[in-house]
Design a protein that fits this description.
Elements (H helix, E strand, L loop, with lengths): L7 E4 L3 H12 L4 E4 L4 H8 L8 E2 L3 H6 L6 E4 L5 H10 L8 E4 L5 H13 L3 E8 L1 H7 L2 E6 L4 H11 L14 E2 L2 H31 L3 H11 L7 H11 L8 H4 L9 H12 L4 H13 L2 H8 L13 H34 L5 H7 L10 H11 L10 H24 L4 H13 L6 H12 L33
Parallel strand pairs: 1-2, 1-4, 2-3, 4-5, 5-6, 7-8
Antiparallel strand pairs: 6-7
């Protein structure tokens, strides 16, 4: 092996790792590869990477020896302890100024920690979200890098070369922010992905059970939807899924067990939302819907005991389908608005200077949630970089006002048909809560003050002044300390 001949090293030759390597090779970069199961290196070189410039290494020292300085090593390994173990294995062979890149779905606090710890040792660290699945990694993913800003100039050219491009050629990759900002943005991306998928699944069940559509008819509906406002990767692949038949002619989707898996990013998004006091209700419901789906045996048993009085299948196919489409679109708007609310609060807490329009651009191509819709989000932030909420912008508020009646009819029909729509329903509830000038939290504060002397603010006094009422005449004058978690 010729020493110091490779532009970047990559460790982890699972599907994403292999495809990123081939993508880099296509763009003229020489990549050295290593895998803990060393036989995978030779298998890769003799198969997928045959005829390329890719260089195989059978040990970490050999990998490091192959790299130009400053050395750039990208990890595509399982998040968690595996990343730390791999970093520990690399450190004895690196020099100050070398760069480690974690391209997995790491939890952002881990990236915060690794950036600081490695900086103390003179090593530059990048934690980057990579979205787009197998195809995206091969032909152009969305890449969301954060970490040590000093590392960005050393990887910018490679990352932007291999990233997806929007219509004008702008790469779906730019610097997100310090420490764990890149992985945080990827986490929220994945949370929104959970929400999008759940919303599509609810639309599917509504059309299937509420309207009695066949999979061939569902294919036609989703293919048509993909030509309009809902144009997106997930709608496109959903139409293709409905068209796929098994060897016996039965649609494959009908043979798949209805228990959903998850790898944690949706859960992390929900936990972060709770920590920051941000009502990201739709992603939370999407996570819980997967948890409920996993209770398969309990659900089957309950289906024989618990019944519901439901309305017959809808007859007004055209109107019903349009109501479902509009409910899906409105709920999608709510999900993204909530995701951006969470990004805003996290940026405040972490001290990140996030470019919200830039994030929409990074998601515009290559990633799983890519859609026409994201262009409207970028336009909104380009117009007002300090925008407080997407729902109050001209474009999104008009859609919600125009489609609200259809959205409500879709949710009502789901209730009447006994079709569970937790994401549709929570989206509508959030919308109604957000547009309500006076919520019943005044009663809630009265209750808290009654049983715990937690105090309350008054509508006829300035904000920040707190009061306590002796509700029973038996209480004292002492009140509880006032704070919010």
């Amino acid at each position: 092996m010729q020493t110091e001949s490779c532009d970047i090293g990559l460790i982890g030759l699972a599907v994403m790792g292999q495809n990123l390597v081939l993508n880099m090779n296509d763009h003229g970069y020489r990549v050295a590869v290593f895998n803990r199961t060393v036989s995978k290196v030779d298998d890769f070189l003799n198969d997928e990477a045959k005829g390329t410039q890719v260089v195989g290494a059978h040990s970490i020292p050999e990998l490091i020896q192959a790299l130009k300085k400053p050395r750039r090593v990208m990890l595509m390994v399982k998040a968690g302890d595996t990343v730390d173990h791999m970093i520990d294995s690399l450190l004895p062979h690196l020099e100050k100024g070398d760069i480690i890149i974690d391209g997995g779905n790491s939890h952002y606090p881990d990236t915060n920690r690794r950036t600081k710890t490695l900086a103390d040792q003179g090593i530059l660290f990048i934690g980057t979200g990579v979205s787009g699945g197998e195809e995206g990694a091969r032909f152009g993913p969305s890449i969301m890098p954060g970490g040590n800003p000093a590392a960005w100039p050393h990887v910018k050219e490679i990352f932007q070369a291999i990233a997806a491009k929007v219509e004008d050629g702008t790469p779906c990759c730019d610097w997100v922010g310090e420490n764990g900002a890149g992985h945080y943005v990827k986490m929220v991306h994945n949370g929104i992905e959970y929400g999008d998928m759940q919303l599509i699944c609810e639309a599917y069940q509504l059309l299937k059970d509420g309207l009695g559509l066949t999979t061939d008819e569902l294919h036609d509906v989703f293919a048509e939807w993909n030509k309009g406002e809902l144009d997106s990767y997930l709608i496109e692949i959903t139409s293709q899924i409905f068209a796929k038949k098994d060897d016996d002619g039965i649609p494959v989707v009908e043979k798949i067990l209805d228990t959903a898996g998850q790898k944690g990013t949706g859960k992390w998004t929900g936990i972060s939302a709770l920590d920051l006091g941000t009502p990201v209700t739709l992603i939370g419901e999407a996570v819980f819907a997967r948890c409920l789906s996993a209770m398969k045996e309990e659900r089957v048993a309950a289906s024989k005991i618990l019944h519901a009085s439901v309305s017959p299948v809808a007859k007004d196919r055209k109107e019903f389908t349009e109501d479902v489409r509009r409910a899906l679109y409105c709920s999608k708007i709510i999900s993204y608005a909530q995701g951006y609310m969470l990004l805003r609060e996290a940026a405040k807490e972490q001290g990140w200077n996030l470019n919200f329009g830039g994030i929409a651009l990074m998601w515009r191509g290559g990633c799983i949630i890519r859609s026409r819709f994201l262009g409207k989000i970028k336009e909104a932030y380009d117009k007002d970089p300090h925008l407080t909420n997407l729902l109050v912008t001209d474009f999104f508020s008009k859609v919600l006002n125009d489609y609200e009646a259809s959205w409500r009819r879709g949710v009502i029909r789901a209730i009447q048909s006994g079709v569970p729509t937790p994401a549709f329903s929570t989206a509508l509830s959030f919308y109604d809560g957000f547009r309500t000038a006076r919520l019943p939290a005044n009663l809630l504060q009265a209750q808290r003050d009654f049983f715990g002397a937690h105090t309350y603010e008054r509508v006829d006094k300035p904000r920040g002044q707190f009061f306590h009422t002796n509700w029973t005449g038996r209480g004292g004058k002492v009140s509880s300390g006032t704070y919010n978690v």
